[in-house]
Write a structure and sequence with these properties.
The protein has 452 residues and is mostly helical. The protein folds into two domains: 158 residues, no CATH class; 190 residues, no CATH class. The protein is 68% helix and 0% strand. The chain contains 19 helices and no strands. The chain is globular, with a radius of gyration of 22 Å. It starts with 5 loop residues before the first helix and ends in a 17-residue tail after the last helix.
Length: 452
């Protein structure tokens, strides 16, 4: 089941309505029921069910074992067990072929399992019962592609009695709705153009350039849309997940980019890899080494091929270079636009390695890049309407992000006069119906990060 589907919307609506009126005990069972129904609708096979149940049981027992111990060695050992499971499924395919398939959502709920055990080991969290642990690991809005939310805040909201905050639930619904529109109207449209542009790069290097730019916006809008759907759905249920994106392509440095992109993963790596390694406390060279290790872990987490390692190391090396040149200095306001463009260029070049199957494929694309003041879409078999629409969509993303960088657009929209608000809502709904689920030949593309 795709989150861009009526069954998902129905499940989210049921969870929202039922959780308004449940007490603390029934709330846990309601979330458990919704998680189980989600796995059924997802058509998860027996392997997926068994793995998540076994992992939930292990995390529950390991949490009980850690409670009150404050042993760093024991905590490390117990945290490594879920990580070894993730490594096995990520890399066993290289030796056993297609017989080993990774369980759905494994990358994300493995990191949540580590968070739970690490926080107990630090004495910052009490161990919970099995049902609560399962609810945390399998929380269905964030199950397949995050955000990687933290246990303390989740358990606090899981214990709340059913209350109804109209503004909060309404804003959650709006955020999920806009995420749905972002996926259908922007991400999927750009997704269809990317392979055409790269395929035509041999005809003209400008297609390679446009392919890189379009892919950068495609991966951003695709993942941002999933995060908005997940965060909005959770908010409708009374759970508040932290934002996962904050206009990352308006970042002037790579450090700033990673403070804005996939924030839940970046902060997880900071808290459970970078700081335990010593962070910036053990000298300059050690800090650079820790930065590279963090990005190497990020690359390995994303995928099991050498291309993801290159992508991660590329970010790590560039971050060290940036740290050596810029350090803690602020970018002058007058130079920010230039630095934003340069940063986007570096990030987009690394996205080519992220997308490519081999180094030679990535280098072939990059070496063929050319600039031309004008080109039509004929060589890429892109119609004139698609061609114009491509630039319109990228322009919409840029303008929207400029607005989002200054204010919370959902709050801003909710404060507008009633006719204006509902004119916007109606326009978005009509566009989704026309170009989305009920549009001619529409087939929602899988979210990119679901595969990780």
């Amino acid at each position: 089941m795709n989150v861009v589907s009526l069954p998902y919307l129905g499940l989210a609506g049921f969870a929202c309505l039922f959780l308004m009126f449940t007490d603390r005990i029934k709330r846990r069972y309601t979330v458990f029921l919704c998680n189980a129904v989600f796995l059924v609708l997802l058509r998860a096979n027996l392997r997926d069910w068994l793995y998540v149940l076994v992992l939930s049981g292990y995390v529950y027992l390991a949490g009980r074992m850690l409670a009150g111990k404050r042993s760093r060695g024991l905590t490390l050992i117990l945290c490594l067990i879920p990580v070894l499971g993730l490594v096995f499924y990520k890399y066993a395919g290289h030796f056993l072929g297609d017989r080993i398939l990774m369980p759905l959502g494994l990358s994300f709920y493995t990191f949540k399992a580590v968070s739970y055990l690490a926080e107990i080991g630090k004495g910052k969290l009490k161990s919970r019962d099995f049902l609560s642990v399962f609810d945390y690991l399998v929380f269905f809005p964030a199950f397949m592609a995050g955000p990687i939310h933290r246990p303390k805040e989740f358990f606090a909201e899981l214990r709340k009695t059913g209350t109804f905050d109209y503004t909060d639930r309404k804003n959650g619904c709006i955020q999920a709705g806009f995420g749905l529109a972002e996926k259908m109207l922007i991400a999927d449209e750009l997704s269809a153009l990317v392979p055409k542009l790269f395929a035509a790069s041999s005809a003209s290097g400008v297609y390679a350039l446009l392919g890189i730019i379009v892919y950068s916006f495609r991966i951003y809008t695709d993942f941002d849309s999933y995060s908005n759907i997940a965060i909005g759905t959770a908010r409708m249920m009374g759970f508040h997940l932290e934002p996962n994106f904050r206009t990352p392509y308006l970042a002037a440095t790579l450090k700033e980019f990673w403070n804005r992109w996939h924030i839940s993963l970046s902060t997880w790596l900071r808290d459970y890899v970078y700081i335990p390694l010593g962070g910036s406390r053990k000298g300059t060279l050690r800090r650079y080494l820790n930065i590279i290790i963090v990005f190497l872990v990020s690359g390995i987490w994303h995928g099991s091929t050498a291309m993801f390692v290159i992508w991660g190391l590329g970010h790590g090396i560039l971050r060290c270079v940036e740290e050596a040149i810029i350090g803690r200095r602020e970018i002058p306001k007058a130079l920010r636009p230039l630095f934003i463009v340069l940063n986007f260029v570096f990030v987009s070049i690394l996205w080519v390695f992220f997308r490519s199957a081999t180094v030679s494929e990535a280098l072939s694309i990059l070496s063929s890049v050319r600039f031309a003041p004008f080109v039509d879409g004929s060589a890429a078999e892109i119609g004139i309407n698609e061609w114009h629409w491509m630039f319109v969509l990228i322009g919409i993303v840029i303008v929207t992000d400029l607005l989002r960088s200054r204010k919370d657009m959902i709050v801003w929209l909710s404060e507008r006069p009633f006719p204006l608000r509902w004119a916007v809502y109606a326009a978005v709904m009509v566009l989704v119906i026309i170009f989305g689920v009920y549009g001619p030949g529409y087939d929602p593309a899988d979210f990119i990060y679901v595969t990780f």
